[in-house]
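Hi all, posting the design record for the shared folder.

TITLE: backbone redesign
STEP: 1 of 1
STRUCTURE INPUT:
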């Protein structure tokens, strides 16, 4: 033990190096976490360059979230409406994601599944639609599934000022994706 008058014992070199590495990682992590949402357009060249340097790290840890959904100008969202037809009963009509889904994280997962329809390669879209239809057919014990892409456009600031609500009927556009026979899937 050191006496009160003795100078403190210097840290071992290994401990100094470890502290330096941890501090460097913390600074890098902080820059990465700030650069991710800041890089969404409109942004400066400096921020976009910082994001490019942090992108592999952000993707590895799944920290490069889809901030463009929220700010500064969120785009339209994609939903999937379906009708499940059965031989013995009435048709079941639903939408993915459904507002009744709980917990909220599961709702978000369903929302992201429908958003990915926008990024399906052209040669794979039909298979993606069949996959959705197969799952819904199994879930509802259906013979046929009809799928429709529903695009929900957000109102502009002027529309909101004029009293247009988020769920206004003219803010939705529908595109039929097809009718799928469940016994063929």
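Okay, here is what came back for every position:
SEQUENCE:
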């Amino acid at each position: 033990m050191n006496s009160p008058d003795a100078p403190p014992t210097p840290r071992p070199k290994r401990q100094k190096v470890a502290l330096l590495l941890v501090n460097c990682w913390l600074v890098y992590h902080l820059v990465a976490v700030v650069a991710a949402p800041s890089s969404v357009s409109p942004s400066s060249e400096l921020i976009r360059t910082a994001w490019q340097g942090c992108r592999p790290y952000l993707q590895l840890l799944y920290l490069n979230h889809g901030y463009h959904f929220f700010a500064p100008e969120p785009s339209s969202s994609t939903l999937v409406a379906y009708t499940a037809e059965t031989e013995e009963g009435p048709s079941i009509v639903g939408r993915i994601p459904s507002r009744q889904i709980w917990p909220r994280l599961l709702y978000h997962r369903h929302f992201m599944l429908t958003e990915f329809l926008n990024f399906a390669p052209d040669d794979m879209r039909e298979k993606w639609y069949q996959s959705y239809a197969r799952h819904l057919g199994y879930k509802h014990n259906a013979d046929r599934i009809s799928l429709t892409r529903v695009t929900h456009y957000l109102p502009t600031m002027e529309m909101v000022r004029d009293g247009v609500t988020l769920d206004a009927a003219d803010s939705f556009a529908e595109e039929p994706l097809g009718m799928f026979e469940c016994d063929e899937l």
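COMMENT: The longest strand covers residues 172-181.
Let me know if anyone wants the other runs.
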